């Protein structure tokens, strides 16, 4: 099955990333500044318009002081639920 940025599992990962950003009290612009990327990149990730690759994911987790293993658990659980029919 081809993965898209609009899949169930990517939605769960996006929600987790947004939650972690908000828990740190960061706006999209503030997170982007810390991440060293344009704010539109963060916005696109959170708004289902851009997939995040694994290296970028780990870097962004470090920026948010979030455990990337926790994020991977979210993704793995969502993939398993998706296979079972949610």
Automatic annotation (TrEMBL):
SMART domains: HTH_XRE
Organism: Microbulbifer salipaludis
Superkingdom of origin: Bacteria
One Pfam match: HTH_31
Record protein name field: Helix-turn-helix transcriptional regulator
Stored PROSITE patterns: HTH_CROC1 (PS50943)
Domain HTH cro/C1-type: start-end pairs: 17-72
